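Sequence only, no structure available. Ideas?
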Amino acid sequence: MRIFVTGASGWIGSAVVPELIDAGHRVVGLARSGASAAALTAAGAEVVRGTVDDLDVLRDTAAASDGVIHLAFKHDIAFSGDFQGAAEADRRAVDAFGDALAGTGRPFVIASGVVGLAPGRVTTERDRAEADVSPASLREATAEAALALASRGVRSSVVRLSPTCHGEGDNGFMAALVATARDKGVSGYLGDGANRWPAVHRLDAARLFRLAVEKAPAGSVLHGVAEEGIRLRDIAEVIGRHLGVPVASVAPEAAAGHFTWLVGFLGVDAAASSALTRELLDWEPVHPGLVEDLDKGHYFRAPAATA
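Reply:
I predicted one. Tokens follow.
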């Protein structure tokens, strides 16, 4: 298949592209910069220049493709305080893809998240977010719009990713936790640290996206979860051991100053299952788990010195 991938040079996309090419697919990647275009070309993909705001580019490229994997999201504005703006841009992109693919039976796979969907228990593929203005609800509304495209003749599916998509080169939550512990001289957690985060290696996530575009039934909700939940205290202890710093609970009144933007995520208990996904697509994660990956040491290499 000729598959159009947005976010193709990002953390997950840069693993999805070779996964698709190695399986015999042709990839067209959306690139908003010259650096992204060069990276995609080097990976063996075709390039179309544009951003998720260029709706005509999205429609035209999707219409000329056999399937779409939509990974792009405006994380820059989302994590600087305008999550709603990022979610609204994402919804416009999904609507544009829907217009291009309606009635074709072609696959359309989008990325979403598992956090915040079922507080206090293990989230499954059957769970849906309550309608409100929380980040989880805003992203889930877009995911539901994508799933609804099944009624318009699109083989749509949603891959809900773990908040921790780890691997060498990661600049996400794990890298931020390590940087915070190094900077503060303590590897911290909130409360008793018993709250859990699901995790998946990005190469396992990439394989799931390939399987989804190849064979997920229309309207499928899939979970990119290799490990149901790792306690935050356990993560903090591994980080503390590698950095040689103490491990401690951070007082609530000091949490915002200590963790900065991470504080809104660290207290969340977000355990999630992928049992239905594994059964449906015969997906079985094979890459290292989070603690094993942390123990490989690549998260703890000292930052390069600046002149």
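The domain at 171-197+228-272+289-300 is CATH 3.90.25 (UDP-galactose 4-epimerase; domain 1).
Hope that gets you unstuck.
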